[in-house]
Write a structure and sequence with these properties.
The chain is α+β, with helices and mostly antiparallel strands. Helices cover 14% and strands 33% of the residues. The chain has a 5-stranded antiparallel β-sheet with strand order 1-4-9-6-7, with no helix packed on it. A 5-stranded antiparallel β-sheet has the order 2-3-10-5-8, covered by helices on one side.
């Protein structure tokens, strides 16, 4: 799940989402963001400015287990606080001498009405939030990027992508591309095949 609101119509089937303060969206779809390449596995990185916060509330009572917060550790980065039903559960210092993938897990009580993620002293780049409940079964992570083409995913940071995929420990990874490439009249089938080969090699 993205923290903040990456776009106006962003919704989640199981969670009510909201945000306050100032958030900046960096997307693999935006050409001006290509150079930095430091995106969440969803194709977005949300940068929360000072005194900004995001909230996530289950739409129905579900026994939750934990929440993982994925973020970037880097030199100019501030503190994050995760609150559960108004009580601070964990404070995270995201400042680091070099850019790194960071993840923090907070075990949750069985009943949770609201989770808040707030930024204190300096902006923080948040890659995403992973909330799990206690029910057994198949876990399906849907990470579709609207309008994405294979070559845009290739412009993400390979090390950062690999670390996030490793964290997911997926048994099956499904890549679906092609419909968005139809509008690219200059792209040949050979070129498209090579892009998919490169993308598979990264996975």
């Amino acid at each position: 799940v993205a923290s903040g609101m990456p776009w106006g119509g962003y919704r989640h089937s199981q969670l009510k989402l909201g945000a306050s303060g100032r958030w900046r969206t960096h997307s693999v779809q935006k050409s001006k963001d290509y150079q930095q390449g430091h995106f969440g596995i969803s194709g977005y990185t949300m940068v929360a400015e000072v005194n900004s916060s995001a909230r996530l509330s289950p739409k129905r009572p579900v026994p939750l287990e934990f929440v993982d917060l994925h973020y970037l550790r880097q030199p100019k980065s501030g503190r994050l606080a995760i609150q559960v039903d108004g009580k601070t559960g964990k404070v995270i210092k995201s400042k680091s001498p070099k850019l790194q993938f960071g993840v923090e897990r907070l075990q949750l009580p069985p009943t949770v009405k609201r989770i808040d993620i707030g930024v204190a002293n300096e902006p923080v780049a948040i890659l995403g939030v992973d909330i799990r409940h206690q029910a057994k079964g198949v876990i399906l992570d849907s990470l579709g990027i609207n309008g994405a083409q294979a070559h845009r995913i290739l412009r993400t940071d390979q090390i950062l992508l690999a670390e996030q995929l490793k964290r997911m420990r997926s048994d099956l990874l499904v890549l679906a591309f092609g419909s968005n490439e139809i509008n690219n009249g200059k792209l040949t089938m050979v070129q498209f095949g090579k892009r998919l080969d490169k993308l598979l090699a990264r996975m």
